[in-house]
């Protein structure tokens, strides 16, 4: 950060990623601020600046030497696990200030020395006490994958053996008994079972009736009259149920049933081509099913309006992934186990090129990474000529 960047931060005041401190003398309180930043997206604390007037107060050389030691102790001894921070000293208007850069943590949730979790909330911090929110922080770290979490009330009896057997044969080109494994050992080998429990991915891919145990992990499908989600009249409204491959098939059937087929050079008696690229829809729906945030207890939504369709996945993009990176084929895998299952049960390639392929087929796709609302939305406008036809349908 240079002086121009620093002046820009000062001019904007405190935000969710910037905090001002006139001075710091308490290791415990500053450690709590660091915890809150590390559990969010990281940030910068500027010391030597009045947090009410944004005026540069400045620090003495004695302050700077004392702070260097205090901040290291706070980040090392008052935070679990310890944080690596960076400090810099700047001179503005002949006054010295210190910047403390706190990265977004890889081992969330971070806690203070008393085990309290803090999270950045606008320009302030707050305690985190809700179990679902703590679990979500765990999911944002590098050490926990939601799809490998055990499903407490599921048992091996909830697995469809025929579906698992077919998956294993396709993956290994041989039945598991030919490899010296019995059914339960094969389930453990493929992490359908982990530590004696059915994993979430195992249930969602091979469960007999996954929604009986996890009812929110379905697809809500609605085709509206008009263009408002508040509309009360539907052309089609249903819940897609079943395992992940079945949800994919049901979702695509919903699109094909409610979108128009147009004649684009085909024989007049043929069904025609779907008004929106079928390849693009397949890629987007697969991504929604496999890469959504399974910490969030919410369904995927497929919404068809007269002027557009929306595919809404629970959870914003993981680990600072941006829409631009996603658009050009730079994926971050959120659910490794589900990816490994999808490659042998669905038309899924697992190369990270799905959305790139979707854009090639359907260039007008819009992506909305709603961080505050914790959802990821794909919007595809319907063709103008289709809209007029649908409105008069």
Description:
With 393 residues, this protein is α+β, with helices and mostly antiparallel strands. It folds into three domains: 3-130, Methyltransferase, Cobalt-precorrin-4 Transmethylase, Domain 2 (2-Layer Sandwich); 146-213, no CATH class; 219-391, 2-Layer Sandwich (Heat Shock Protein 90). Helix content is 35%, strand content 21%. The protein has helices spanning 3-12, 27-39, 61-77, 131-140, 161-172, 183-189, 200-206, 210-213, 244-258, 278-291, 323-327, 336-342, 354-361, 384-391, and strands at residues 18-21, 43-47, 79-80, 86-92, 95-102, 111-112, 118-121, 124-127, 193-194, 197-198, 219-224, 234-240, 261-262, 273-274, 300-304, 308-314, 366-370, 375-381. It has a six-stranded mixed β-sheet with strand order 12-11-15-16-18-17, covered by helices on one side. A four-stranded mixed β-sheet has the order 1-2-5-4. Strand 1, helix 2 (27-39) and strand 2 form a beta-alpha-beta unit. Helix 2 (27-39) packs across helix 3 (61-77) and helix 9 (244-258) runs antiparallel to helix 10 (278-291). It is globular and about 75 Å long. The protein starts with a helix and ends with a helix. The model has no long low-confidence stretch (mean pLDDT 88).
Q: Name the poorly predicted regions.
A: none
Distance between the termini: 58 Å
How does the helix and strand content classify structurally? alpha+beta
Binned strand content:
15-25%
Largest sheet: 6 strands, mixed
Topology, pairings included?
Elements: H1 3-12, E1 18-21, H2 27-39, E2 43-47, H3 61-77, E3 79-80, E4 86-92, E5 95-102, E6 111-112, E7 118-121, E8 124-127, H4 131-140, H5 161-172, H6 183-189, E9 193-194, E10 197-198, H7 200-206, H8 210-213, E11 219-224, E12 234-240, H9 244-258, E13 261-262, E14 273-274, H10 278-291, E15 300-304, E16 308-314, H11 323-327, H12 336-342, H13 354-361, E17 366-370, E18 375-381, H14 384-391
Parallel strand pairs: 1-2, 11-15
Antiparallel strand pairs: 2-5, 3-6, 4-5, 7-8, 9-10, 11-12, 13-14, 15-16, 16-18, 17-18
